[in-house]
Design a protein that fits this description.
It is a single chain. This protein is of the alpha/beta class and 343 residues long. The protein folds into 2 domains: 202 residues, L-asparaginase, N-terminal domain (Rossmann fold, 3-Layer(aba) Sandwich); 116 residues, Rossmann fold. Helices cover 27% and strands 20% of the residues. It has an 8-stranded mixed sheet, with helices on both faces. Helix 2 crosses helix 3, helix 3 packs across helix 8 and helix 5 runs parallel beside helix 6. The N and C termini lie far apart (45 Å).
């Protein structure tokens, strides 16, 4: 018996069309897809396409306009239909795809079905595109394999969603997971790394109300002023700050005004999380004396969390009602494979 898959079209390049202003969202993706896919009777293969239905958002999202509230909307649509389908495909714009993949992984803990997020760099309306292959392969993966987690599939790579990053702006291999191995690779053969997949669980789904002002970010740069931090934290809505520091977690510790601003924020109960600007690697706060300064003032070392996963996880923990002490103690404890365990 064929699996039934729901395709949730939230927006993104995959469903856009050309205009005088560039690519813009376009309605009617279901009809376009049915014209591009071959008839069902011609689809005999080792891994056949599953039956699928498609729901299109009434207001398609250009992913550069994504808000945390959109994570909740996507999660709610999946949860409401969870028992009706054997797997789910989420079509999404590439710019913020890794943020949404991370957020969904925290909301949909204990998954027993696949949620595969995909999109494209070139719209399906174009003759030459990467859209059809990404979508067809995502359908085959969801319809023929046991993958109980939120993934991104893109250009032959199946990646853990909360380990993924968009790493190229114009190439077709736009996504990678710099600190975790690929879950699968699709070429002539489909090869899954079953040992890396999360174990099938019992759904423990949550839909917290996100406050878009709760989490802010600051990238360290030569000459950064304490005013940058003070301006970011000048609201009682802010509950957490992600600091993107150098290398293994090094700040400019001789910038005393900056360190004082961070220390005062920590004392006020704002969670401070230190991540690295480097593409690959982990934070080892204290490997250098500069990083040890952050340990002293209560900044949490961000392990090998991606920026996107750190941002989404902080939003999730804050929206779930946890206090700063709990968040500081648990932000680098993996909930669903998003980071390596800290010894």
């Amino acid at each position: 018996m064929k699996r039934r898959i729901l395709i949730l079209h939230t927006g993104g390049t995959i469903g856009m069309c050309s205009s005088a202003q560039g690519y813009v969202p376009d309605k009617g993706f279901a009809a376009l897809l049915s014209r591009r896919l071959p008839p069902q009777q011609s689809l005999a293969s080792t891994h056949p396409l599953p039956e699928y239905e498609l729901i299109e958002f009434a207001q398609l999202i250009d992913s550069s306009n994504l808000m945390p509230a959109d994570w909740r909307q996507i999660g709610q649509m999946l949860i409401e239909r969870w028992s009706d389908y054997d797997g789910f495909i989420v079509l999404h714009g590439t710019d913020t795809m890794a943020y949404t993949a991370s957020a969904l992984s925290f909301m949909l803990q204990g998954m027993d079905k696949p949620v595969i997020i995909t999109g494209s760099q070139i719209p399906l309306t174009e003759l030459r595109n990467d859209a059809l292959d990404n979508l067809v392969t995502s359908l085959i993966l969801a319809g023929n394999f046991t993958i109980p987690e939120v993934c991104i599939y893109f250009n032959g790579r199946l990646l853990r969603g909360n380990r993924s990053r968009k790493v190229k702006s114009t190439e077709l291999d736009a996504f990678d997971s710099p600190n975790f191995a690929w879950l699968g690779q699709v070429g002539i053969q489909i090869k899954l790394e079953h040992a890396l997949l999360l174990e099938q669980g019992k759904p423990q789904f949550t839909l917290p109300q996100f406050n878009p002002d709760a989490v802010v970010m600051a990238q360290v740069y030569p000459g950064i002023s304490a005013r940058v931090i003070d301006a970011l934290l000048d609201s009682d809505q802010v509950r957490a700050l992600i600091l993107q520091s150098y290398g293994v977690g090094n700040p400019p510790d001789k910038n005393q005004a900056l360190i004082t601003s961070l220390e005062q924020a920590s004392d006020r109960g704002i969670v401070l999380l230190n991540t690295t600007q480097c593409y690959q690697g982990s934070v080892y706060q204290g490997a250098y004396a500069t990083g040890e300064t952050l340990n002293r003032i209560g900044v949490v070392a961000g392990s090998d969390l991606t920026l996107e996963a750190a941002f989404a996880k902080l939003h999730y923990l804050i929206a779930s009602g946890y206090d700063p002490l709990y968040i500081r103690e648990n932000i680098t404890r993996p909930l669903c494979g998003e980071c390596s365990p800290v010894n």
